[in-house]
Write a structure and sequence with these properties.
With about 160 residues, the chain is an alpha+beta fold. About 35% of the residues lie in helices and about 25% in strands. The radius of gyration is 15 Å and the shape is globular.
Length: about 160
């Protein structure tokens, strides 16, 4: 994470198939969600122009999925992994059905080692969302958090390739 934040890490850009990337992660995690009696749903809109460092983007989305399993584990809840486009950017989002995070804490949870025990249950190191945010910034994008009522929506906003 230090290398990402300092700019020392090299970004290996390559054209990516966002639908394939998310489908692979969905297929990998679907049974784990089912074991917790949660429903992982995939919503894919056609997009073009996704470019980035595949291992880093896989890490970012996997961190979001693991956060949902750890902190938003509600039986019969629906967790939506989605791909879309808005304002010329590629959007990858994960929406859970858990307790969520108070909006005034959004910027705080992007910092290293921050854990909001009062709003999220379970163990963790406090690095998950800060790593996701660092990966987004490394790609020239941003992580945005919003209320899902119930739950939290975490969106990776990534610029399309020129």
């Amino acid at each position: 994470m230090s290398r990402l934040e300092s700019g020392a890490a090299k970004l290996t850009r390559q054209p990516l198939d966002g639908a394939e990337l998310l489908t692979n992660l969905h297929d990998l995690f679907e049974a784990v969600f089912a074991d917790k009696q949660m429903h992982l749903v995939l919503e894919l809109a056609p997009v073009s122009g996704l470019e980035g460092d595949e291992p880093l983007l896989v890490q970012a989305v996997a961190n979001l999925l693991e956060n949902a399993l750890t902190h938003a584990s509600v039986p019969d809840s629906r967790v939506v992994l989605a791909l879309g486009e808005s304002d010329g950017d590629i959007l990858i989002s994960l929406t859970d059905g858990g307790a969520g995070i108070p909006p005034e804490k959004y910027s705080e949870v992007e910092k290293r080692f921050v854990r909001l025990d009062e709003s999220r249950s379970g163990d963790g190191t406090g690095l998950g969302l800060s790593l996701v945010a660092a990966i987004c910034r490394h790609h020239g994008g941003a992580l945005t958090l919003s209320e899902a009522s119930p739950g939290l929506r975490a969106t990776l906003r990534l610029p399309k390739r020129a």
